[in-house]
Amino acid sequence: MKKVNLGLNKLSVPNKIEFARSVVLQMTGNVHFTTPNPTLASITTAANNLDTAYVKAQNGGSQDTADMYAKEDALDQLLIAEGYYVETTANAVPAAAEATILSAGMGVKQTGSINIPILSVSQGSVTGSVKLRRKAEGRKVVYKWQMSVDPFSNTSWTNAGEGSLASFEINGLNPVTRYWFRVSVIT
Questions:
Q1: Could you tell me the pTM of the whole model?
Q2: CA-CA distance, 108 to 90, in Å (whole number)?
């Protein structure tokens, strides 16, 4: 049985608004979720209300800030309820549960081992982004990240970036395209 991981407590207000809009975008027309509960329109409305309250709270007083927190809590409750709906729907077909949860724009709660795989890919902070993570190789190394839409063609691999950290986020990806990633370690 797979569990949904929303990670709402780790998101700033602007990122939470973006996450809510991403969930609505990915669930709209998704064949797995024919009758979302709560409705996607209610999540959109709550995200828009929080966006307005956030802007107002930036230059407002304590009452504006309190209003923003109330609207943030309202959006959180809707997203949590939507997470339960997605989890229940996904677990109706256990073999496809993880893919179904991911198709809703939500994360899957990791269970068990703390081993870091050689390369892992997870949903990024916004729509069209992914976080890549590799097992660290120690100090004084460079990680070269590459991506491709056709992994069987050597000419289709493009450089996504490089750096000294064993993690990397790629933005600007098309949400409906399948990508492959690889990393090389240069010492």
A1: 0.60
A2: 11
